[in-house]
Amino acid sequence: MHYEKYHNVYVNKANEIIKKIESSRQNNQEIDQKATLKALSFNIGGIVLHNLFWENLTPKDKFVNLTKGILFDAISKEFDSFDKFRKEFSDSAVNVEGSGWTALTFDKQTKRLFVMQIEKHNVNLYPNFEILLVLDVWEHAYYLDYKNERAKFVDGFWNIVNWKEVENRYKNAIKK
Q: What is the pLDDT of residue 3?
């Protein structure tokens, strides 16, 4: 339902806005640039973040904890331990104001990992920060299974993270 109902809305809305922009160009009509481009940014942000979100999930029966490897070492070094990282990420997710996301990112300039919050879909993205792991904490992501208990949803998330995908993103990010 999350994919079909919510993610798909962002795809459809982005396509509508792109058609509106193309039509206004062809017909030499002005559009409200601020509102139109903000809406386009919001919907494209929803698409990109959801795509990352789906890719960093795995079925429970295929789940493997992150206990070694280049990403584990980087997380342990940056956050002092994997458990401290998990707590910081979880606290960030639980405390997103309203609707949004929490992400583990890699800053290409400083070569460091950071946890960040992304409000809505397009606010607070840092241009030089590559998203490695993202958690959707909009209510639509969890209300069917967890009602209004975001903290339980966040706790359950740790049982379905596709660490292989997240580590591949990290390896690609450090190569750039």
A: 67
Please give the Cα distance from 41 to 123 (Å, whole number): 9
pLDDT in tens, 51-81: 999 999 999 999 999 999 999 999 999 999 9
> What percent of the chain clears pLDDT 70, i.e. is strictly above it?
93
State the CATH architecture for 2-55. Answer: Orthogonal Bundle (1.10)
What are the percentages of helix, strand and coil residues in the chain, rounded to 5?
60, 15, 25
Longest dimension (CA), the chain: 58
- Smallest CA-to-CA distance from 105 within 46, 174, 37 is with 174
Fold for domain 60-175?
minor pseudopilin epsh fold (3.55.40)
The contacts found for 32-37 with CB under 8 angstroms, 24 or more apart, are none
